[in-house]
């Protein structure tokens, strides 16, 4: 999905973040390249504003209008893929995403049975690969993690999950109401760092009405989104270096 409102600038100085140039290409083009080259997806659609029509045409994929919220956009994208049993939702702001990371996540999802799979990355993996990158981390019994920027849904579970998820999002400006909805005992265990990954999965599965599963991935690029100028500088360095390596004698592949 590639959100953005024409005429409204974000912290990167662009109205549509997906079109911010990174190493000579729109940010979203790098994401689409990784998804396509993974070989694990049958169809792709791009969800976003009309400004992305040029990218969609170049990539030869449908452009689906964005909704008023991320949840609405996800449902719009799902509606453009009739007959799909599974849906992979990916944000447009992770240009360092690689085909290997996508395929590894999909393979790990096949190891367990659930309706919703969400990737998480250990703090050690993230900070080792990208020192200095600022991320939001959550400490659980098993370790400290940051969330990824994609999710795999069973298609028939998405509408129910979306409805309940939207209600939780609506409560975000009322910490007391949100905390009560999640559960005070759950929050207490979290604050004391005594909450396990299994307990977190179970509680959010109850809240969303689907079977959710967190998937620990060794690919930190899944969790490094471009949200600040420093993130953009990092993406430029990483992708420019990769392009330079491909141009060296004896290397293979194309940007």
Would you kindly provide a written description of the structure presented here, covering whatever features stand out?
α1 crosses α4 and α3 runs antiparallel to α6 (158-170). The chain has ten helices and ten strands. The longest helix has 19 residues, at 229-247. The chain has helices spanning 27-38, 53-59, 70-79, 99-109, 123-129, 158-170, 175-182, 184-191, 197-208, 229-247; strands spanning 21-22, 25-26, 46-48, 63-65, 86-90, 116-122, 138-140, 143-147, 150-154, 212-216. It has one domain (17-228): Spore Coat Polysaccharide Biosynthesis Protein SpsA, Chain A (Alpha-Beta Complex). It has 255 residues and is α+β, with helices and mostly antiparallel strands. Strands 5, 6, 7, 8, 9 and 10 form a six-stranded mixed sheet that branches. Mean pLDDT is 88; it is low at 1-9.
Task: Name the features.
globular; disordered N terminus; single chain; alpha+beta; 255 residues; Spore Coat Polysaccharide Biosynthesis Protein SpsA, Chain A; two-stranded antiparallel ribbon; 10 helices
Concise synopsis of the structure shown:
This protein is an alpha+beta fold and 255 residues long.
Compute the number of strand runs. 10
Q: Please summarize the sheet with the most strands.
A: 6 strands, mixed
Q: What number is the mean pLDDT?
A: 88
How many DSSP H or I helices?
10
Q: Under CATH, the topology is which?
A: Spore Coat Polysaccharide Biosynthesis Protein SpsA, Chain A
CATH first level: Alpha Beta
The low-confidence parts are 1-9
**So, the CATH homologous superfamily?**
Spore Coat Polysaccharide Biosynthesis Protein SpsA, Chain A
Shape: globular
User: How big is the Rg?
Assistant: 19 Å
User: Based on helices, strands and strand pairing, what is the structural class?
Assistant: alpha+beta
**Helix and strand succession?**
EEHEHEHEHEHEEEHHHHEH
How helix-rich are the residues, as a percent range?
40-55%
Quickly count the domains. Answer: 1
How far apart, in Å, are the first and last alpha carbons? 22 Å
- Examine the secondary-structure arrangement and name the CATH architecture: Alpha-Beta Complex
Provide the β-strand percentage band: 15-25%
